[in-house]
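Notebook p. 47: complex prediction with FE2/S2 (inorganic) cluster.
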Amino acid sequence: MSDGDSGRKLLYNPHIFMCLEENESEPGRGCCQDKGAMELFGHMRAYSKQNGVTGIRINRASCLDRCELGPIMVVYPEGIWYAVRSKEDVEDIVRTHIIGGERVERLMVHPADRVPEDLVTAEQTE
Ligand code: FES
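Predicted complex, structure tokens below:
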């Protein structure tokens, strides 16, 4: 496997980082662990294995700063961010993205999907 651009061989493809943070980065934003991230993490590993996905690595990550949208994961080498809420969401990512090579548009987190304005602190806006 290579990254497609440079022809370099990748150690893992895909390489997935899923937030399992259990502390709120800011009050009111929530954390991925409280929204079921650990169960979804385990399900993604199991479902990938059941479906014969090879070359995959699914790592735990700390806060990815999209807490209110979580649980959050990032899929490399593409760098596609997803918000997942259910086992069905995880299965859709494995089937459609990991196996099928397509995006799951309905679950994608885009750069504009930011923290709601009322949660941005005065310090961040200065
Ligand atoms: S706690 Fe998961 S993105 Fe912040």
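Notes: Residues 118-126 have pLDDT under 50 and may be disordered. The radius of gyration is 15 Å.
Next step: compare against the earlier run before touching the bench.
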